[in-house]
Amino acid sequence: MSEPGDPSGSVAEPSPEETAVLTRRTLAPLRTARSRWALIAASTAVVVAVSTALTIGLKGGEKDLAENGRPADTVTSSGEPASAASTPHPSASTSPSARPSRSPAPAPAPGKPDAEPSAPSTGTGRARGGDEVPLTVSTRTYAWDDPQCEGKYLINRPPGEVSPPVMGQDVPGWVKAHGAIAADRQRVALTVQGTGDEAVVIESLHVRVAGSSVPPAWNAYLGSSGCGGGVETRSFDTDLDAGHPTVVPKAGQRGFPYKVSRSDPEVLYITARARAHDVNWYAELQWSSGGRQGTTRIDDHGKPFRTSGSQGRPVYEHLVGGTEWFSVTEN
After folding, report:
1. What is the 8-class DSSP label of residue 56?
2. Contact by Cβ (8 Å): 208, 298
């Protein structure tokens, strides 16, 4: 070692302990920097990986939605938005409950080979195949033999609240005002007439029961006294108490078929009888014309006819020119 003040002497070398201390102080910042860069690089790699996975997953989800035919946010068959129907998951397939219901196949257009023929008409104004019905049927609900005989009715009122009986065209209004039901029998007139140049054949007439129950416990009122007993042609009877009512010609008259046209109508009379039941019923008229066939429903202006038995009910009569109802005993 040189002495102090010696210009030619060199600087003293540090001891091994001093060298180790200096080395640690120098390398510490470098290690810290390297660690930070390593963390940044790792984070970047993770972000890139996650972004790639999400991109692939979203593409797969779009493909799944497209294959199921339902774009995002559409309404499912349960009426809920698809996003609310299940927990979103890019790779999850749509559950059966979330799949849109299949729409029914459109009905074939009229005239195409695969179109099915329409059903026979039942009072809708159409015949088989969609043609117009070639006849009309007008109905009179209370068509008695004699204007003085307007039948018998069940009314849920005492005699003091029932107005005097009426006849002819006034009967339907009187019945409606009192909520009356035809009792024991009801006579309906059907006027059948063709509408075109071709004749129409009435093949048959059937009575259908729409409902049957016990007669109501109401008073019975006679429409008038001294009913006539004439029988017009084309008159038929039917027993509504029977399990399957049939239409039977009266007084030996011939049955169906009948032929009608625009210039030659027919009036058919049906007398429906009931004793043990309160029956709602209607009629079906089957016809044919020029290769066409159909069935027309006949009812009381859109609702069934109603005829009820009155056995055991109190009976009242109002004489022509009289002032009040009085009790009578029927045989």
Report:
1. H
2. no
Q: Mind listing the pLDDT tens digit for each residue in 76-99?
A: 223 333 333 333 333 333 333 333
**Least confident stretch, 90-104, 119-133, 139-153:** 90-104
Q: Please say whether the beta carbons of 327 and 158 come within 8 A.
A: no
Q: Which two tokens stand for residue 1?
A: 């070692």
Asked whether the whole model's pTM tops 0.70, one would answer no
For 293, other C-beta atoms within 10 Å of its C-beta total: 15
C-alpha–C-alpha distance, residues 150 and 86, integer Å: 71
Whether the CB-CB separation of 61 and 91 falls below 8 Å is answered with yes
Residue in the block written with tokens 């409902």 = 211
Helix or strand or coil: residue 110?
coil
Instruction: For residue 177, give the H/E element and its range.
Output: helix 171-178
Angle at 279 between CA 241 and CA 284, to 5 degrees: 90
Report the DSSP beta bridge partners of residue 187: 271
The sign of the torsion formed by the CA atoms of 296, 299, 304, 309 equals negative
pLDDT at 245: 96
- Give the domain ranges of the chain: 16-97, 128-328
DSSP conformational letter for 95: P
Query: How many CB atoms lie under 10 A from the CB of residue 21?
Result: 12
Burial class (CB in 10 A: 0-12, 13-18, 19+), 289: buried
Q: Give the Cα separation of 120 and 129 in Å (integer).
A: 8
